[in-house]
Design a protein that fits this description.
The chain is mainly alpha-helical. It has 8 helices and no strands. It has 2 domains: 112 residues, Rna Polymerase Sigma Factor, Chain: A, CATH 1.10.1740; 70 residues, Winged helix-like DNA-binding domain superfamily/Winged helix DNA-binding domain (Arc Repressor Mutant, subunit A, Orthogonal Bundle), CATH 1.10.10.10.
Length: 190
């Protein structure tokens, strides 16, 4: 059940959206200011790169602006924005994944650089575990990675994830379970 603050917040959003739809650019600036940090946190957890996150925030708010007339004001505004942000991020990650596959296929063995051994003093166990965890999360299939990040880092409920990704709660649970199993296997040595 929404709190009084949430209800007031939703009414403010609806009022601002009405202003934007009537041509008030300042009202859209207020919406952007209100939600850009929340959107940034969602995106940065998925892409781990500030520049890419900034680009995705711009793309997200452009899409929000151009589709604002399609928003159903009977629902809260932020989940709609977050869904657009997640979809924009997923599209970029899919595109990068496809590009990486093509570039890997075009390489032959003599063009693959040999990495130098790390300084053993810098390989503290905790840092190594974190690095391996990040690598393992990034290696997850995109659907599993998205659900895992939204659940563990965004702390969204199964239902919120299902609603945002337009999938069933059962699908969320199975993708999350598969992600956890793969991470457990990948991190067995740690």
């Amino acid at each position: 059940m929404p709190t009084i603050t949430q209800e007031w917040n939703n009414k403010l959003d609806v009022w601002l959206i009405g202003k934007v739809l009537n041509g008030n650019a300042r009202a859209f600036e207020r919406l952007v200011q209100k939600y850009q940090q929340h959107v940034y946190r969602t995106i940065i957890r998925m892409v781990k790169d500030h520049g890419t996150a900034d680009d995705l925030i711009q793309q997200t708010f452009i899409k929000v602006y151009t589709n604002l007339d399609k928003f159903d004001t009977a629902y809260p505004f932020f989940p709609w924005i977050r869904r657009i942000a997640v979809n924009e991020t997923l599209n970029l990650l899919k595109s990068k994944s496809e590009q990486r596959k093509k570039s890997i296929e075009s390489l032959d063995d003599k063009h693959i650089p040999v990495q130098a051994w790390d300084n053993p003093l810098r390989n503290m166990e905790k840092k190594e575990f974190i690095r391996q965890l990040e690598r393992a999360v990034n290696d997850l299939p995109l659907e599993q990675k998205t659900v895992f990040i939204l659940r563990t880092q965004e702390e969204m409920s199964y239902q919120e994830i299902a609603d945002d990704l337009d999938i069933s709660v059962g699908t969320v649970m199975s993708r999350l379970n598969r992600a956890r199993c793969k991470l457990k296997t990948a991190l067995l040595d740690y």
